[in-house]
Amino acid sequence: MAAAYPATNFHSVNLQQFADDVDKATAGKLKITVHAGASLFKAPEIKRAVQGGQVQAGEIIFANFQNEWQIYGADGLPFLADSYAESNKLYAAQKPLIEKKLAEQGMRLLYAVPWPPQGIYTKKPLASAADLKGVKWRAYSPATSRIAELVGAQPVTVQAAELSQALATGVVEATMTSGATGVDSKLFENLKYYYDMQAWLPKNGVLVNKQAFDALDKATQGAVLKAAADAEARGFAASQKVNVDTLEKLKAYGMQVVTPSPQLKADMKKVGDTMLKEWLDKAGPEGKILIDAFKKS
């Protein structure tokens, strides 16, 4: 199992628990070894590694793969689903489409867990989006690059594992991510402010190579699916707890956790509206089906 985040991250802890549950349920017949911290493959390489059978399973962040297929990026659209309840509704609309696509690519989805809501980390205070002009902005997905372009910031692609280094050396000076990544990457060492935008809740998906899964006997498959359902529920609860805990930790480390001004919220909402329109143009009929299902739910 290839995973991109540190072993201490709540997604990785949950993955390990999933692996332990499978081990226990199958009486040691199926052992899953979790390789956290991008030690086997870097985040953008994990999906292809599972697809090609270089590893049997892996964890990805769906939004990273939006350029491959727009539906993967739906939960990375700012201010579309901006709470845990809304994130759940979006997942319900997105899931059948993702399962179908993964099946075509020789994989299946075991479970998905949202990250805590995303906010903006900066060195200097922000009154409005205009304050982000020219700022070196860490991007990790097509959507985060586009946000930078729309506010006039300068996007620099940096994955989670290299983030603290990039901040220490001044390669980036602002980023949009969760409280959890803020604590993991010690953003408080180089950045001063966290604007709690609750912009979107991107999801990690745990995938398994379909051939590898189909090769398991029925009882073992059942054990894996049961452990996956438990991991999804547990991960959802853990994400909510981590959101509260990590914002408290950021404050304890001296970071200013700020409620965004109405102006900053309005500016970023405008960015979200533009991006949804652009996304719908690219995503075509599937995108419309997804957004309609989400809005009806």
Describe this structure as you would to a colleague.
The structure is a single chain. The chain is an alpha/beta fold and 297 residues long. The chain is 47% helix and 15% strand. The strands form 2 sheets. A 6-stranded mixed β-sheet has the order 5-4-6-3-7-9, with helices on both faces. It has a 3-stranded antiparallel β-sheet with strand order 1-8-2. Helix 3 (84-104) packs across helix 9 and helix 4 runs antiparallel to helix 9. The longest helix is centred in the last third of the chain and has 35 residues, at 218-252. The mean pLDDT is 96.
Structural descriptors:
297 residues; 3-stranded antiparallel beta sheet; 9 helices; 15% strand; globular
What secondary-structure arrangement, pairings included, does this model have?
Layout: H1 10-25, H2 46-51, E1 57-61, H3 84-104, E2 107-114, E3 118-122, E4 136-139, H4 142-151, E5 154-157, H5 163-168, E6 174-178, H6 179-184, E7 193-195, E8 203-209, H7 210-214, H8 218-252, E9 256-258, H9 262-296
Parallel strand pairs: 4-5, 4-6, 7-9
Antiparallel strand pairs: 1-8, 2-8, 3-6, 3-7
Helix pairs in contact: 1-8, 3-9, 4-9
Quick recap:
The chain is an alpha/beta fold and 297 residues long. It has nine helices and nine strands. It has helices at residues 10-25, 46-51, 84-104, 142-151, 163-168, 179-184, 210-214, 218-252, 262-296; strands at 57-61, 107-114, 118-122, 136-139, 154-157, 174-178, 193-195, 203-209, 256-258.
